[in-house]
Amino acid sequence: MEDSDLRSDIVGAIVASLGSGHRAGDVAVAVICPEGAFADAPHWSPGPDFAAVGGESPESRCWERRNDDGTVTVVAAGVGPVPEVWTVTAAPEDFDGCGLGNSMHGITRMRDEPGAVIHRESYAGHPSEAVARYWDAFRKEWGVMPRGGVQEGAGWMFGHGKVWFYLDARVEDSGVLHRAALELCESFGATARVYPYNPDTKTYDGPDVHPDYVRR
Questions:
Q1: Alpha-carbon distance 95 to 83, whole Å?
Q2: Strand-pair partners of 66
């Protein structure tokens, strides 16, 4: 995307949001990479019947599967002070209180459930560890993480298999936002869509997800 086009779109979104009162001038940018941009990135999941807890993303470390017998199997990778991969099968209500949507480490509470079947294995050398290392390094380099998927069949809103990033900023930080979005576009052959803050919906006029705050 051309620098002048992105700058113009950001300014236009700021102007569109200036009369909104609270958070006036706030602006967000979705940076959308072409299909296959991260084809070489490592990927692992427990299997095709598992769904990531809290929504699919390259950062997913906790998955669940509904079983035919009415139980649920949850897999959490990187749990505990000496990291392990936990696979737990139990009745759905037994997982209440684990808080898995917020932290996968709550899976350790299942030790107190007498009906839970628990399998623990080392995280070191596990395929999920390689995934975590890759994306942790990416976050350190870029200050942002993808919101889209890198695996086949993800079905994300911007197109099959496309990775995308979502950034936002207050109006006074729009220059930082512009530089970060432009660098991502240039580095990954990406395009950008810019959205103003909408006070009526209390979110941006773009994808309804929590954005990353980029400070570079």
A1: 20
A2: 72
Strands 27-32 and 117-122: unpaired
216 or 199: which carries more pLDDT confidence? 199
Neighbour-count burial of 114, counting CB atoms closer than 10 A to its CB (0-12 exposed, 13-18 middle, 19+ buried)? exposed
Query: Which pLDDT score is estimated for 46?
Result: 94
- Which residues have CB under 8 Å from 32's CB, separation 6+? 148, 158, 159, 162, 164, 190, 191, 192, 193
The rounded distance, in Å, linking the Cα atoms of 19 and 8 is 18
Could you count the other beta carbons within 10 Å of the beta carbon of residue 137?
10
The span from the CA of 152 to the CA of 174, in Å, is 34
User: How buried is residue 53: exposed, middle or buried, by Cβ count under 10 Å (0-12/13-18/19+)?
Assistant: buried
HSE-up of 95 (CA within 13 Å, CB side)?
26
What is residue 128's predicted lDDT score, i.e. its pLDDT? 95
pLDDT one-digit tens code per residue, 178-204:
999 999 999 999 999 999 988 777 788
Q: What are phi and psi of 116, to 5 degrees?
A: -80, 135
CA 16/CA 13 separation, integer angstroms: 5
pLDDT in tens, 27-68: 999 999 988 888 888 989 899 899 888 777 777 899 999 999
